């Protein structure tokens, strides 16, 4: 049989000088190689078919068992019998082969072969002299037995004298209690520990922390007993710092710019940077930036006003800011230089550097007291616009700033600058929106005698709060507050549109619930209108709220309705707080009407409080805070002072608030005269006579001709077009009001009569002779009214 036949399966796992042969499942030699003959001296014809136990035995001298049950362990040392009778130690490598039959492929290597010894020696040399890893072999007492003297951190510092000494004595800054406990655990269990991070200070750099990736491998004898531990370590401080910087940038991306407020964004930059990058961080911004403005793109000069926006120091660091928030900060070098050329600066040895002495004395003194030894000054620029300066200081941290720290600070400053610029632009637009809102709100109280009115607006964020006081026919008045979410110019414009829409609807003398229904229809139509680009025309209007009330000083009744919003608060003259149960209607464009109203009779002198922010927490009058109750029930406080006090008491809530406070009045019996007349043409003269007598009683005789004409025309129309009784009422208020009510729901229309027409001129005459006129529908019909200016 060819001596090499069948042994090619092991060539990839052996060297050309290794002995190779095959053993069948009965433990007999099935194939034999020339190398095996050279190692053991047997030719192939003397060993083929013989039991392998005749050739191999374990080191104790017992014959090897059959390979089918107990093959030698990988790398196990065996005793081989040479043909000339002597024994030699060999290492066996066995592999199971299954083809047509079961075979064992065996590789034998002389245990003491020069090649093996040379390879082992080269391996040790590479690990202990040329490896970039730190390699130490420790015995069970944790004494150093082998040591890589050329590893970074040990080169030139630790010598051969370290052999035999305790590991903690050789590297006390690296081997601590935690490291010793981990090593002893490996000695006790025999289980390796791979890639755990450990922080220490190597002998070559005892003043700075280094991060190591450490692997502990147990060293075992042939019986599995642990002889020691092989410690391999790699300094990963650079990778660790890079990972920490990347983490800091990721954290900055999530924590900086959470609001559109310049000061908050500046504070977020300081909080993120301490203590991850610096011990103290300050942020100063240009004064114009705080007001939403910006300088032209490019550098700015030293005369530019700069204010302190944020300061943050590491916990436990005894220091204080040189300038309080919002205080003006002088710009001296290096801060002025940074603004001039927009280049970041890194300064070492700050206390000894002459640069610090160019600062104002109290700032330089605080820097010295804090022990600052290194600082960075970085400009805050975005889109070419200079926004301010960020300064980073190290005092407690021993390491000075490096160039990579400066690059990191510049990256953080760039991200923060974009957020600050966004906040600046928002501040500018929001300030303009607030100005627009103020101009769209009422500037003075309209003339009316129904209520005494005071209001106060406390803007915080949204610019969509509005209110109004609208005089109505019959000496009545409408009170309204509303809220629209939004902080932009568009939101303020939408608020103005809503207020105008309510005013237009109010002139139609609609009932409160009907007015809100029509307002909802208007808003729904606007939000469903689409521009050519396909975007909603007035999306801000969706969800707007409105509370609408109409007070009649003659009947002293007030009717409330609301589309969302907060229910009113009523305070009687006796000091009782009442919360009327006004049915809640859906906010505008968010539900389907109808809206419901509630009618409340109010004693004269009652206070009606309408607000866009909650003054009470529930519908229980007892839930009104005691302080607020005291403010509202004080009858001696002027109404304006009461309104301001309510706002001050509610200011800490931090929300937008409009408070509209109205104290009710009434019209005395001597100011109102009313008559019920039958539906008979003969009563027209009677109506004129009654009106003339009442005007005489009021001392308004000079108004009799026009008033009698108005009464005659209105009563005549009522008789002509209705069948029921007619009611005439005269009201002397800021104007003289004439009202004629009937049971018909048909409203008259003003038209231009031709010369040949017999009628149609009555309303035309009334329109020419009065300030205004109109129709007000009631539950039982309608009332036509006309107002004349008093002489």
Description of the structure:
The structure is a single chain. The chain has 791 residues and is an alpha+beta fold. The chain contains 18 helices and 32 strands. The chain has a 6-stranded antiparallel sheet. Strand 15 (374-382) and strand 16 (385-394) form a beta hairpin. Helix 12 (489-506) packs across helix 13 (512-528).
Strand order of the largest sheet: 2-1-6-5-4-3
Rg over CA atoms, rounded to whole Å, is 49 Å
Shape: elongated
Query: How does the major sheet shape up?
Result: 6 strands, antiparallel
Give the helix/strand class. alpha+beta
Q: Count every beta strand, where a strand is a DSSP E run of 2 or more residues.
A: 32
Multimerization status:
single chain
In short:
It contains 18 helices and 32 strands. Strands 2-1-6-5-4-3 form a 6-stranded antiparallel beta sheet. Strands 18, 19, 20, 21, 24 and 25 form a 6-stranded mixed beta sheet that branches.
Give the arrangement of secondary structure elements:
Elements: E1 19-24, E2 29-32, H1 34-40, H2 44-47, E3 56-58, E4 76-81, E5 87-98, E6 102-110, H3 114-130, E7 134-138, E8 144-147, H4 167-170, H5 177-189, E9 193-200, E10 210-220, E11 226-235, H6 237-255, H7 262-273, E12 280-286, H8 287-290, E13 306-313, H9 335-341, E14 345-348, H10 361-370, E15 374-382, E16 385-394, H11 403-440, E17 451-458, E18 466-471, E19 477-483, H12 489-506, H13 512-528, E20 545-552, E21 557-563, E22 569-571, E23 577-578, E24 584-585, E25 597-601, E26 607-611, H14 626-632, H15 639-650, E27 657-664, E28 672-677, H16 683-697, H17 704-721, E29 726-732, E30 735-742, H18 762-769, E31 772-778, E32 781-789
Parallel strand pairs: 21-24
Antiparallel strand pairs: 1-2, 1-6, 3-4, 4-5, 5-6, 7-8, 7-11, 9-10, 10-11, 12-13, 12-16, 14-15, 15-16, 17-27, 18-19, 19-20, 20-21, 21-25, 22-23, 22-26, 26-27, 28-29, 29-30, 30-32, 31-32
């Amino acid at each position: 049989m060819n001596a090499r036949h069948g042994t090619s399966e092991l060539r990839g796992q052996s060297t050309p000088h290794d002995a190779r042969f095959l053993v069948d499942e009965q433990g007999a030699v099935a194939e034999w190689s020339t190398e095996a003959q050279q190692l053991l001296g047997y030719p192939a014809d003397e060993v083929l078919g013989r039991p392998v136990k005749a050739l191999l035995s374990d080191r104790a001298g017992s014959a090897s068992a059959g390979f089918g049950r107990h093959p030698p362990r990988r790398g196990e040392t065996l005793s081989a019998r040479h043909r000339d009778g002597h024994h030699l130690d060999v290492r066996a490598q066995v592999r199971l082969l299954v083809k047509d039959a079961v075979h064992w492929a065996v590789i034998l290597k002389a245990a003491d072969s020069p090649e093996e010894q040379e390879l082992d020696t080269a391996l040790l040399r590479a690990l202990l002299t040329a490896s970039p890893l730190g390699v130490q072999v420790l015995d069970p007492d944790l004494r150093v037995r082998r040591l890589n003297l050329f590893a970074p951190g040990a080169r030139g510092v630790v010598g051969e004298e370290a052999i035999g000494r305790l590991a903690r004595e050789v590297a006390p800054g690296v081997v601590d209690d935690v490291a010793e406990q981990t090593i002893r655990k490996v000695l006790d269990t025999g289980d390796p520990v791979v890639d755990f991070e450990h922080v220490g200070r190597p002998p070559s750099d005892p003043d700075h922390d280094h991060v190591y990736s450490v692997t502990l491998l147990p060293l075992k004898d042939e019986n599995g007993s642990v002889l020691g531990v092989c410690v391999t370590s790699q300094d990963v401080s650079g990778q660790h710092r890079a990972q920490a910087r990347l983490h800091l940038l990721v954290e900055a991306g999530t924590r900086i710019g959470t609001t559109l407020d310049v000061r908050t964004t500046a504070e977020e930059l300081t909080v993120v940077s301490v203590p991850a990058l610096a011990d103290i961080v300050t942020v100063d911004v240009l004064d114009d930036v705080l007001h939403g403005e910006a300088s032209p793109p490019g550098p700015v000069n030293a005369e530019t006003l700069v204010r302190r926006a944020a300061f943050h120091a590491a916990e436990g660091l005894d220091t204080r800011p040189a300038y309080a928030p919002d205080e003006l900060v002088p710009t001296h070098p290096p801060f002025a230089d940074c603004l001039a050329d927009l280049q970041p600066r890194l300064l070492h040895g700050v206390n000894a550097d002459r640069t610090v002495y160019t600062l104002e004395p109290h700032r330089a003194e605080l820097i010295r007291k804090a022990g600052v030894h290194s600082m960075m000054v970085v400009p805050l620029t975005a889109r070419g616009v200079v926004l301010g300066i960020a300064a980073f200081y190290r005092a407690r941290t021993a390491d000075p700033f490096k160039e990579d720290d400066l690059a990191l600070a510049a990256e953080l400053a760039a991200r923060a600058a974009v957020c600050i610029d966004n906040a600046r632009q928002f501040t500018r637009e929001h300030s303009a929106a607030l100005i627009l809102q103020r101009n769209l709100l009422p500037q003075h109280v309209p003339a009316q005698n129904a209520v005494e009115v005071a209001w106060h607006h406390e803007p915080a964020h949204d610019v969509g709060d509005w209110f109004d006081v609208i005089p109505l026919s019959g000496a009545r008045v409408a009170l309204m507050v509303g809220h629209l979410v939004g902080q932009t110019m568009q939101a303020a414009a939408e608020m103005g549109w809503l207020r105008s829409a309510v005013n237009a609807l109010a002139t139609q003398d609609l009932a409160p619930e009907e007015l809100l229904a029509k307002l909802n229809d208007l808003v729904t139509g606007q939000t469903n209108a689409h521009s050519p680009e396909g975007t909603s025309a007035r999306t801000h209007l969706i969800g707007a709220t409105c509370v609408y009330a109409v007070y009649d000083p003659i009947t002293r009744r007030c009717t409330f309705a609301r589309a969302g919003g907060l229910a009113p608060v009523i305070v009687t003259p006796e000091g009782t707080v009442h919360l009327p149960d006004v049915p809640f209607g859906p906010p505008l464009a968010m539900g389907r009407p109808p809206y419901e109203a509630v009618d409340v009779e109010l004693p004269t002198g009652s206070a009606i409080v309408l607000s866009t922010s909650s003054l009470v927490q529930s519908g229980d009058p007892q839930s009104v805070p005691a302080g607020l109750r005291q403010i509202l029930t004080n009858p001696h406080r002027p109404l304006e002072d009461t309104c301001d006090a309510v706002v001050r008491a509610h200011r800490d809530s931090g929300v937008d608030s409009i408070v509209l406070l109205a104290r009710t009045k009434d019209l005395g019996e001597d100011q109102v005269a009313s008559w019920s007349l039958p539906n008979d043409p003969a009563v027209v003269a009677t109506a004129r006579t009654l009106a003339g007598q009442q005007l005489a009683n009021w001392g308004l005789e000079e108004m009799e001709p026009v008033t009698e004409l108005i009464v005659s025309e209105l009563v005549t129309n009522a008789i002509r077009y209705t069948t029921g009784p007619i009611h005439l009422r005269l009201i002397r208020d800021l104007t003289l009001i004439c009202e004629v009510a009937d049971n018909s729901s048909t409203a008259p229309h003003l038209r231009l009569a031709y010369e040949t027409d017999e009628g149609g001129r009555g309303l035309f005459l009334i329109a020419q002779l009065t300030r205004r006129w109109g129709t007000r529908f009631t539950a039982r019909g309608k009332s036509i009214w006309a107002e004349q200016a008093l002489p």
